[in-house]
Design a protein that fits this description.
single chain; 259 residues; alpha/beta; 7-stranded mixed sheet; 15% strand
Length: 259
């Protein structure tokens, strides 16, 4: 049985499009016939709200699975697309599992029964570099990093890179940062162009060719509990994410081929 591609979407800061990326990738992959599971690890629950509505608070969620050692609560939201919902309690996860043995590998253990059931498992990380993110890094093969164009964009990656290196040196030797991509990009802004140049100078081909342009669809779709592709498949946001997903899949295939 083929193992899932397990990737996590992670960033050192909020508001850069982590959840938008996870949701849109899931929508595109599932519509293309690939079985996809999205796991919401963020206490803000934005991924959960997108698919279940803003008022939905499923009793069984990822926090309960972490703390009670229960099976992952998987909810089917459309054909070939499932999610694991989150809870506001995820904000207290570090305290709740602090004394657990192998607390960094709980998510990996929870996912193991399902790694042959999906083509893709995508983990939506919180911005905090706590135990939820450490668990995601331990369970994943690849880290995909969205980054917006601000003055300290490259410097802010250092904390994430340091954590990834710690995890890969012990808990998960297969882990690597395999893609960085720019979000909320506007070609007319000088700062955006400077940040893009700096990122490509520092990180080379880790920075994906496709940039996610700033456009209203990216903001409007989540308000209506929809992903960008469903909301407006002809929008710049949808077009950019389709192109970005091709970039990421191509890079992961090349990496796998050379292993």
């Amino acid at each position: 049985m083929t193992k899932s591609n397990i990737i996590c979407i992670a960033s050192h800061k909020g508001g850069v499009g982590k959840t938008t990326t996870a949701v849109t990738f899931g929508s595109i992959l599932s519509r293309n016939g690939e079985r996809t599971l999205l796991v919401d690890l963020d206490s803000q629950r934005n991924l959960t709200s997108t698919f279940l509505g803003t008022g939905a608070k499923p009793k069984e969620n990822i926090y309960n699975a972490f703390c009670n050692k229960s099976e992952l609560p998987i909810i089917n939201v459309r054909d070939r697309l499932d999610i694991v919902p989150s809870s506001i309690d995820m904000g207290a996860l570090d305290t709740a599992i602090a004394s657990r043995l192998q607390r960094e590998s709980i998510l990996k253990t929870l996912l193991e029964p399902f790694t042959g059931s999906y083509d893709w498992i995508i983990l939506d990380c919180p911005s905090q570099m706590g135990l939820a993110t450490v668990n995601a890094f331990t369970a994943s093969m690849s880290i995909i990093v969205p980054i917006s164009c601000d003055a300290y964009a490259a410097e802010g990656l250092i904390q994430l890179i340091d954590l990834a290196n710690i995890v890969s040196s012990g808990l998960n030797p297969l882990l690597d940062i395999d893609a960085i991509f720019i979000t909320r990009f506007h070609m007319r802004r000088k700062l955006d162009r400077l940040v893009e140049h700096d990122l490509r100078e520092r990180f080379g081909d880790l920075v994906m060719p496709t940039k996610i342009r700033e456009n209203a669809t990216v903001v409007q779709a989540p308000v209506l509990s929809k992903d960008i592709y469903t909301y407006d498949p002809k929008s710049n946001g949808a077009i950019d994410y389709i192109s970005l997903l091709k970039d990421v899949k191509g890079r992961l295939e090349r990496i796998k081929h050379h292993e």
